[in-house]
Write a structure and sequence with these properties.
417 residues, 19% strand, alpha/beta, 14 helices, 6-stranded parallel β-sheet
Length: 417
């Protein structure tokens, strides 16, 4: 079995020419420069299908950062060319995989990383890929001493941070946690039918912050293949959920729609099939079985304006038939009025976008050491945690992925086996 010694690179960003890949390169470069003592020896490279696209991406970043990145090593690798993938993963200790949809292209890369003993981190929010990979690859990764972690982007890292802070700072017995994510898009502009910015009085179409079609494509096929989750989760429960979690006498419901948590809040809260919920539940199960930790009841919501909920559901229903998916692929900009676009958001919009996460933790002020028992009476303590930051789908997601990769590289010996 290959070893990690004498590899030319410590980290490779695969899919570097995509929207997230651009910001991943930027964050990795800035992290290495700003923490020169800790990361002075980190050797990194970028990988993608086409050399000209890699050169173009590095040229754009060079202009933005006012540095020369032309000498950054470049690797040609294509998910449809397995030998190129194997060559790439053998050249690095850590692979940051930005190439989706992962349901289509992720498994071959994971298998190659395990064979080469290369740690693999990705941004997948597709639960079929995340949980299917855990089910099928866990033992092989364990035997190869390889770390394989999915959902390393905003939708899991940041909510999990809120949950961890609640566990750490709730002085008492923590019972349940609810998280509410609110997204504030960047500057909105008016465009004409060929994409040129125009004045308000002359506009033909309204376009604000847009989601890249690649991200939407992954979400679409999650819904298309959602029934695949039934046998996957049944097998996961049989293999890994060997102990039943204790049930609380106080109910905690995960509502599909929830009204605002304060009278001055706008919009409603909607449950979305993000990996954070699944990851939190499996973490609960693992920590209870192996460490005897008290399980925490957890629910997560996205804050949306009512009109987005009303007009969003018809788009979801188009997922379920082939002609609907074909229609979305051909006309996604028109059908969503630019909310989802093949070009994605502009750099200006990404720089101005923000998120806020409100975490509401409830429990008892009385400390109960037993994981099977709860304090008597009603819950009498509530703690609110607020986390805020930049653009969540791309900038924060790329930063989270890079920081996870650097942590695994530098502090790997401190991570549990």
């Amino acid at each position: 079995m290959p070893t990690k010694g004498n590899r030319p690179y410590d980290i490779v960003i695969f899919g570097a020419t995509g929207v997230v890949g651009y910001y991943a390169i930027r964050d990795l470069y800035q992290s290495v420069q700003q923490s020169s003592e800790e990361y002075a020896s980190v050797r990194w490279a970028v990988a993608g299908r086409r050399m000209d696209k890699l050169q173009q991406t590095l040229a754009e970043l060079s202009e933005e950062l006012q540095v020369d990145l032309s000498a950054v090593p470049k690797i040609i690798a294509d998910v449809l060319d397995l030998p190129s993938i194997e060559t790439m993963v053998k050249s690095t200790k850590v692979l940051l995989n930005c190439v989706g949809p992962y349901n289509h292209y992720g498994r071959a890369v994971v298998d190659a990383c395990i064979s080469a003993r290369t740690d693999h981190f990705d941004l997948s929010a597709e639960l079929q890929f995340i949980e299917g990979t855990q089910l099928d690859c866990h033992e092989a990764a364990l035997n190869a001493e390889v770390i394989v972690v999915s959902a390393c982007g905003f939708c899991s890292i940041i909510p999990e941070m809120g949950l961890a802070l609640a566990r750490q700072h709730f002085n008492g017995t923590l019972h349940s946690v609810e998280s509410y994510i609110d997204f504030k898009p960047g500057k909105q502009v008016f465009v004409d039918m060929v994409g040129n910015r125009v004045n308000l009085l002359d506009h033909f179409a309204f376009q604000g912050y847009s989601i890249n079609f690649g991200s939407f494509h992954s979400i679409m096929y999650f819904f298309v293949n959602i029934l695949d989750m039934v046998p996957i989760r049944r097998r996961l429960r049989e293999q890994y959920s060997t102990a039943a979690l204790p049930k609380s006498r106080i109910g905690h419901w995960q509502w599909l729609l929830r009204f605002p948590f304060s009278s001055n809040a706008k919009g409603i809260s909607v449950v979305l099939p993000i990996p954070d919920l699944s990851a939190a539940h499996r973490t609960n199960q693992y920590n209870y079985q192996h460490h005897g930790d008290r399980p925490i009841l957890y629910s997560a919501y996205y804050r949306l304006r009512m009109w987005k909920v009303i007009f969003g559901w018809p788009i979801v229903f188009l997922f379920w038939c082939g002609c609907g998916r074909a229609l979305l692929k051909r006309n996604i900009d028109c059908l969503t009025n630019g909310v989802i676009s093949k070009n994605g958001p502009s750099r200006e919009q990404v720089s101005e976008a923000r998120f806020s996460l409100r975490v509401i933790a409830k429990g008892w002020s009385e400390k109960c050491d037993s994981t099977e028992l709860e304090p008597k009476g009603k819950r009498d303590k509530k703690m609110i945690i607020k986390i805020s930051g930049g653009d969540p789908p791309y900038a924060v997601t790329a930063s989270a992925l890079v920081q996870v990769g650097l942590t695994a590289l530098i502090d790997r010996k401190m991570m549990p086996r």
